[in-house]
Amino acid sequence: MTEKKENPHNEQDNANSSDIQAHLNELLSGDGKSSKPKLSKKTSKVKKPSKRARIKADKKRPVESADKKALSTEEKTDKNQNVGKKSGSHWLIGWKQLLFPHEWRAVKAIIVLLIVAAGLIYLISPASQVQKYDVVGTQELSNKAVLKAAGLQKGQPLLTTLYQSDYFSKEAKSKNPQINHLKLTLKSDNTLQVKVDEIVKVGYVKAGNQYYPILENGDMLNHEVSDQQIGGLPLYDGFTSAKQLHKALSEFGKLSTPLRHAVSEIVWSPTKQNNQRLLIYMNDGNEVLISANELSKKMKYYPGMVAQLKQTGQADLQVGAYFRPYK
Fold first, then answer.
1. Domains 128-198 and 201-325 fall in the same CATH topology
2. CATH number for the domain whose boundaries are 128-198
3. What letters, b where the CB count within 10 A reaches 16 and e where it falls short, cover 186-220?
4. Cα separations in angstroms, 52 against 45, 47, 254, 260
């Protein structure tokens, strides 16, 4: 008898038919869950990378160190701070990039030459020259006399003249004894102010038949000698020493101009009671007795005293103020 061999394909077909039958039964029963196809374990599992692969991936990934982070922060700060500088010099950098080195040197040389030329044009133009002098502080001297003594003229370089104020002051003092000092200041674009410290004339001293003008500092002017007394200034007489004369001149020079011009003559007239007494003859016919060392202090009261009087006489201002009319 021959044995029947089982066919392996029949067993597989039987298994598949049983699975299909079970699936049909689930569909007929209405179970929604079974309608979804089940994934096999092999397909549902996701392969995770191995430990060695993860280490290699970490090595390949770029890592920023703390130093690099700090450096990038500083670079950002520097960029923000230098924005103004870069924007201000951007045009210069652009020009440098457009020009060759020898061309850029030529451009710089041309710029320098233009600046020099502009300066030269300004120096020779009327804008840089003095067009007017404003003289202030004088009482007796004329503006022309001051400018002539100092050597100041229109058309002189403005800046040079201004910065040489001391030179012109010394020049004026040497040429005119009545100028003690002068100072130059810029008043406007082309005008310089000349402020004069003047030594005023306080009278005349008679020597022989000549009258010599005398200043408040005691100096005599030899260039204005006259053979007669000039009105408006007193004649000094009777002084036996230069010390006495200088004291009277110094005090008299402190008086106002109208009061100085009201005096006709000053005579040194000391007594036992007052060794500095002065006898002053006024142009209005009155006489004044006063001490030389108090001349500027007490003489200023004379105009008010005379205004209340109706006759001429002698005003004694040595001690207090007394008036004795002429008999």
1. no
2. 3.10.20.310
3. eeeeeebbbebebbbbbbbbeeeeebbbbbbebee
4. 20, 14, 112, 119
In angstroms, the Cα distances linking 283 to 149, 263, 279 are 34, 6, 13
Token pair of 36 as six digits: 């979804």
**Cα–Cα distance between 141 and 121 in angstroms, integer?**
37
pTM of the model: 0.55
Residue spans per domain, the chain: 88-124, 128-198, 201-325
Q: How many CB atoms lie within 10 A of CB 241?
A: 9
Structure letter (DSSP) for residue 92? H
What letter does residue 33 receive in the DSSP assignment? G
Pull the structure tokens for residue 104.
Answer: 């850029």
Q: pLDDT tens digits, the chain, 327 residues: what are they?
A: 444 444 444 445 555 556 666 666 666 665 444 444 444 444 444 455 555 555 555 555 554 444 445 445 555 555 555 545 545 555 556 655 676 777 777 778 888 888 887 766 666 666 678 889 999 998 888 999 999 999 999 888 888 898 899 999 999 999 999 999 999 999 877 899 999 999 988 888 877 788 888 888 888 887 777 766 666 788 998 888 888 888 888 888 888 888 888 999 999 999 998 999 999 999 989 999 999 989 989 998 898 888 888 889 999 998 888 888 887
DSSP H/E element including 138: none
Look up tokens 């010099």; give the residue: 89
What is the fold, at CATH topology level, of the domain defined by 201-325? Rossmann fold (3.40.50)
What are the angstrom distances between the C-alpha of 67 and each of 47, 61, 72, 77, 80? 38, 18, 9, 15, 20
Nearest residue to 156 (alpha-carbon basis) of 179, 126, 121: 126
